[in-house]
Design goal:
By secondary structure, this protein is an alpha+beta fold. Helix content is about 15%, strand content about 25%. Strands 1-2-3-5-6-7-4 form a 7-stranded antiparallel beta sheet, with helices on one face. The chain is globular and about 45 Å long.
């Protein structure tokens, strides 16, 4: 599976900063949050997320907006962990070909491009993997880096 690497090369990200502890997607102090365990692994950010029925849209499926939140947050962590910039999302696109099932583990891998020519634009791609091992089409985003690290 694409999301498993040597254990010693993994760096836990949520809780590693003094800001964002109440974040809905990853905050450790948010009792209603998703608590997604994003990690820096080499040149990517990865997580395995499992969401229950409280996050469903249709029966047995995770709500698409929640899935997009998980992916968007992974892209945010990629700009922080891989490019040392806080950033906000400008554009986000994803194509859902199959539903994301509740109570099933879903691996996520996010990569982040270099800063654009203007010194502020970052692009990201994220892909998930189905239980059968097939990779789903990637989501894509464009983000704007903040000059102020507290801007996230």
């Amino acid at each position: 599976m694409f999301y498993r690497h040597r254990v010693e090369s993994r760096i836990a990200l949520p809780g590693s900063l003094s800001v964002g502890q109440d974040c809905f997607a990853c905050g450790l102090h948010n009792p209603r949050g998703l608590h997604i365990p994003y990690e820096k692994v080499g040149d990517a950010v990865e997580a395995v997320f499992t969401l229950g029925a409280e996050f469903s849209g249709a029966p047995a499926y995770v709500h698409g907006g929640v899935v997009m939140t998980v992916i968007d947050e992974g892209m945010s962590w990629a700009t922080i962990a891989l490019r040392s910039h806080f950033a906000v999302t400008q554009t986000f696109s994803s194509r859902f070909r199959r539903p994301v099932l509740i109570d099933q583990p879903h691996p996520l891998r996010v990569e982040c491009g270099e800063l654009g020519e203007n010194g502020r634009t970052l692009t990201g791609t994220a892909s998930t993997q189905r239980a059968a091992g097939t990779t789903r089409p990637p989501a894509k985003s464009t983000s704007t880096a903040h000059e102020d690290e507290q801007g996230a």
